[in-house]
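Need residues for this backbone.
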């Protein structure tokens, strides 16, 4: 009996499988029937997506560590905020889509990157703080990277277009929200900053690119580009989300 090959149907899904990697399983049949060999792809994150994830984690972790330093936390507190900011969104996404244990608990690189970012910020925070504008620009790039990788992973796990886009947004904003709560601040996404909206727009662009079966690099550039440009222009022009008008008490 010939072997059976099972493969994904889109370029984005194929990006999550290592090229040429396969797992061959052999099933014994009763009697004198021949054995059945099944060739299945081993679903490992593609190098491009892992690199995007790690870069985004590093940038977010730096912003979280800066908050910790300015709150006069010790090195442990700074590392906690760095790890929460860098990994929180991905943790939440993985739990919600059933990708357990989360990737950060299976790959040591996901835990090491926020630790390194936190320690560097703790030791060199005066220099990092003086370049806060540059850090904010990098944060916009991290947001774009995360909204793309979060959406692609949700699609890989079978979510529909709208839920997958929401998971991309959650991946981008979840860590910052958890950081602000731990630091005793109202999350930035609730204070008028145009932050969640660009992430959601980039996530929907990513979903559209996947539906068109475009290469993963094109999908990533399109989705991340829309999010990053929107966020940077909002920072430059000081765009704000609509806020309530009139007195707060009625």
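Answer:
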């Amino acid at each position: 009996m010939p072997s059976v090959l099972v493969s994904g149907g889109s370029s984005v899904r194929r990006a999550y499988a290592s090229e040429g990697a396969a797992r061959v399983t052999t099933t014994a049949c009763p009697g004198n029937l021949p054995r059945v060999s099944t060739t299945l792809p081993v679903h490992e994150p593609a190098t491009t997506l892992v690199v995007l994830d790690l870069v985004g984690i590093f940038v977010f972790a730096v912003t979280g560590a800066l908050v910790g330093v300015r709150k006069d936390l010790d090195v442990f507190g700074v590392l906690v905020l760095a790890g929460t900011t860098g990994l929180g969104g991905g943790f939440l996404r993985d739990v919600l889509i059933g990708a357990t244990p989360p990737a950060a608990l299976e790959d040591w690189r996901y835990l090491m990157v926020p630790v390194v970012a936190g320690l560097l910020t703790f030791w060199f925070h005066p220099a990092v703080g003086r370049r806060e504008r540059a850090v904010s620009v990098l944060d916009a790039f991290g947001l774009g990277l995360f909204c793309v990788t979060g959406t692609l992973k949700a699609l890989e796990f079978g979510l529909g277009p709208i839920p997958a886009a929401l998971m991309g947004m959650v991946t981008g904003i979840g860590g910052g929200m958890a950081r602000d709560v731990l630091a005793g601040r109202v999350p930035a996404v609730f204070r008028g900053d145009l932050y969640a909206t660009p992430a959601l727009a980039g996530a929907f662009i990513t979903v559209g690119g996947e539906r068109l079966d475009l290469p993963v690099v094109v999908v990533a550039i399109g989705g991340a580009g829309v999010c990053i440009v929107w966020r940077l222009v909002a920072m430059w022009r000081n765009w704000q989300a609509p806020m309530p008008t009139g007195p707060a008490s009625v």
